[in-house]
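hiii, so i know i said id send this last week but things got crazy w the move. better late than never?? heres the sequnce for the chain we talked about at the cafe, plus the structure i predicted for it. fair warning i was half asleep when i ran it
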Amino acid sequence: MENKIGIIVGSLRKESFSKKIANAVADIQLGGFEFEIVSIDNLPVYNQDFDDFNNVPEEYTVFRNKIKGLNAFIFITPEYNRSIPGCLKNAVDIGSRPSDQNVWDNKPAAVFSSSPGNIAAFGANHHLRQCFVFLNLLVMQQPEVYIANISEWFDDEGKIKKEENKKFIRSAVEAFTQWIARINKD
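okay and structure toks below
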């Protein structure tokens, strides 16, 4: 059976570094694992009234069903104001509601964060993990994936330039697949 891993990008910007990382992850070929980038670009802002009054936007339904069909998730995020971008929090919230239908529940997850500076979106990484505790996402603790100086990573075609950086991403993804196997075994 293929493990279907959803890649969720916390940026809407067309040329975002997070999207470039997601593309690099999606290109990795590992036996038994399939990667799929899940778009959050068209999700309306979460409003509980939609669920309470049975007026759920089609985009919510499509997104929730997509998440239900995936086995695990890699969240790739930049940092906005020492936290996660609003679009990513919105997607997390949409998947978690209604509260008795949390589509994230009991699924493996990893967080990859990046920034052009040296802090590598540490704040966003940990704020996202904090949300995941409540949502019962089973987050890989090690290795932690922080990518500093991301603006230096990619060529004009959006490909990772340095072999050492390609190896770093691959090793993080391989560690995550081992985390998934460990969880599935238990």
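btw The two ends are 17 Å apart (CA to CA). thought thatd interest u
miss u guys!!
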